[in-house]
Write a structure and sequence with these properties.
- Strand 6 and strand 7 form a beta hairpin.
- The chain is globular.
- Helix 3 packs across helix 5.
- The strands form three sheets. Strands 1-2-3-7-6 form a five-stranded antiparallel β-sheet, covered by helices on one side. The protein has a five-stranded antiparallel β-sheet with strand order 8-12-11-10-9, covered by helices on one side. It has a two-stranded antiparallel sheet with strand order 4-5.
- The chain is built from five helices and twelve strands.
- Bound molecules: coenzyme A (COA).
């Protein structure tokens, strides 16, 4: 497998760290700390009124200098699309949060996108909104109901990661994001995809099932 990853001791908040290549790293944080812990290091640049959402927001930002010590948190700006970015692109980065977890990926050279999701049955209500007819076939293969839930969540998470990798918004998940096939097992693997906006770009989305989360990321 390319890159290095390690599952860290579950008593550490940084539960997973992955050095994807010499310029790109990914981390997953289990949020157990109070807001004060993060606020000591993270400048809060926008109002996040809901306390748990604020905690998630702070934890996502906190992760970035954990991956790269020199990450300039205070320089983060937020685009009209709500994508956070650094004006001089010293690092490309992407953040996701779900429940008590925050994930971040950063790269000094390549564009990145990340998403984490807890599989829940709610996904089946929105399948028609994000999968085209061909992609729905990926859910028609023989599998248990828990595998079906995991696979449907993975397909959603992969498209969210591609959406964030692109970052400019205006993406129709059925029309512009195409999942061609999946390769892997119930621990990790990859999806071969095409991003069709306006020309077709091939993208590989990597995934990992970790504890009760699906984590997907794109580096390209
Ligand atoms: C923006 C979006 C991807 C966020 O996903 P989410 O599951 O709600 O939340 P996550 O925790 O995974 O991600 C939130 C983070 O994404 C980042 N983000 C927000 N907008 C972004 C954008 N346009 N591009 C890249 N990253 C973005 C931010 O870092 C944000 O966290 P922060 O505000 O604390 O920094 C999602 O709200 C969205 O708009 N998805 C597209 C929906 C869509 O078009 N669906 C059509 C098919 S149903």
């Amino acid at each position: 497998m390319a890159g290095k990853y390690k599952l860290l001791n579950w008593i550490l908040p940084l539960v997973y760290q992955h050095t994807i290549n010499s310029t790109t790293k990914l981390g997953l944080w289990h949020i157990e700390e109070p807001e004060e812990f993060f606020i000591a290091k993270v400048p809060l640049k926008r109002d996040v009124t809901h306390p748990h959402k604020r905690l998630q927001h702070l934890a996502g930002r906190y992760l970035l200098p954990t991956l790269f010590e020199d990450f300039p948190l205070e320089e983060i700006l937020i685009a009209d699309t709500r994508k956070p970015f650094l004006p001089d692109e010293q690092y490309h980065f992407s953040i996701s949060h779900c429940g008590n977890y925050a994930a971040a990926i950063a790269s000094s050279e390549q564009r990145v996108g990340i998403d984490i999701e807890h599989p829940t049955d709610k996904i089946f209500r929105i399948i028609h909104k994000f999968l085209n007819e061909e992609e729905k076939q990926l859910l028609n293969e023989p599998m248990s109901s828990s595998q079906l839930l995991q696979t449907a969540t993975l397909l959603w998470s992969a498209k969210e990661a591609m959406f964030k990798w692109y970052g400019d918004g205006g993406v129709d998940f059925r029309k512009h994001l195409h999942i061609i096939n999946t390769e892997g097992n119930n621990e990790e693997g990859k999806l071969h995809c095409h991003f069709q906006k306006p020309d077709s770009i091939s993208l590989t989305v990597k995934y990992r099932f970790i504890k009760d989360l699906v984590m997907s990321w794109v580096v390209s």
